[in-house]
Specification:
By secondary structure, this protein is α/β, with parallel strands linked by helices. It has ten helices and nine strands. Strands 1, 2, 3, 4, 5, 6, 7, 8 and 9 form a nine-stranded mixed sheet that branches. The mean pLDDT is 94.
């Protein structure tokens, strides 16, 4: 096999105090039959001896230890920037790869030069692999269950550094589509995700989800669409806040956005109306499924 047929895949993992789970994620990478592969682990200043345990169990893994927790999106950016592979697989630390996933991603990328991101099919540990599920193009993906063509990052950029957590994929997806690449949901490529309770907080999910989606609309949408899109996001997020008894978190996010509005407007880098139309078309196609 030539290098072109078997490109290097870098697997990027960000972790924080999930020693037991990140070991399982790394193990699933090295158990893949596909080669060559490298593992880049960014540790967000864990205090449960995650780094020492990884070094002992998997000395071939490259570990980058941060001085503090920068949040998941920026932690992923650090990992992505240190990957050497032409293809990068971004894997959550509480997830693991199905045995053929890396090989399947490489083969699918090789069929389509303009394919920028492969969104894998995410299953709970007890779920079975789906049968006869067709692939389809989409406008979203999970940041911890996707394969990215490295050249996409040089053209579209990385995850937004100021999000800390939640909704960073939507911002990047807009820029990926704007750069002329597609995003494919590929059910053959499977990862399993346990969603462990460590470091999960539903109230913070509501705050950051609301805030960051509003950030994306204000910075990325064509200006004439911003008022309507902002109003819609405010309504749906605060209604969700009412239903989940987290209204003060979603309202707090809206207040933060108002205070940050001048700063957000100064940093606008809007996508084209063509990109918005493409996303609307993709959404309609998904609604028909």
């Amino acid at each position: 096999m030539t290098k072109m047929q078997h490109p290097l895949i870098s697997v990027a993992i960000v972790t924080w105090n999930r020693r037991r789970y990140v070991l399982r994620a790394i193990e699933s990478v090295f158990e893949q039959p596909y080669r060559p592969v490298e593992v880049i682990v960014v540790d967000s200043a864990s205090f449960d001896d995650t780094v020492g345990t990884i070094k002992e169990a998997y000395p071939e893994a490259q570990i980058i230890r941060l001085h503090r927790n920068l949040g998941c999106p920026e932690g992923r950016n650090v990992a992505l920037a240190n990957c050497s592979g032409d293809i990068i697989f971004s894997l959550d630390d509480d997830a693991w790869l199905s045995p053929a996933t890396l090989k399947l991603c490489v083969e699918r990328f090789q069929k389509e030069p303009d394919l920028g991101i492969i969104a894998c099919h995410v299953l709970a540990p007890e779920e079975n692999r789906p049968a006869n599920v067709r692939e389809y193009y989409t406008y979203h993906f999970s940041g911890g269950a996707c394969a990215i063509r490295k050249e996409v990052l040089s053209k579209a950029g990385y995850f937004p550094s100021d999000f800390f957590r939640q909704a960073e994929e939507g911002d990047l997806a807009l820029r990926v589509i704007e750069a002329g690449y597609s995003i494919l949901c590929y059910p053959k490529a499977v990862i399993y995700h346990e969603r462990v309770p460590i470091n999960r907080n539903n109230k913070l999910f509501m705050f950051y989800g609301c805030r960051n989606e509003l950030y994306t609309v204000i910075r990325r949408y064509p200006l004439f669409l911003v008022p309507v899109a902002v109003l819609w996001k405010v309504l749906i997020w605060n209604w969700a806040g009412v239903k989940k008894f987290a209204l003060h978190y979603t309202l707090g996010a809206c207040v933060v956005v108002v205070l940050k509005l001048p700063w957000l407007l100064l940093r606008r880098e809007a996508v084209s109306l063509r990109t918005i139309r493409k996303i609307v078309m993709l959404r309609k196609n998904l609604d028909r499924k």
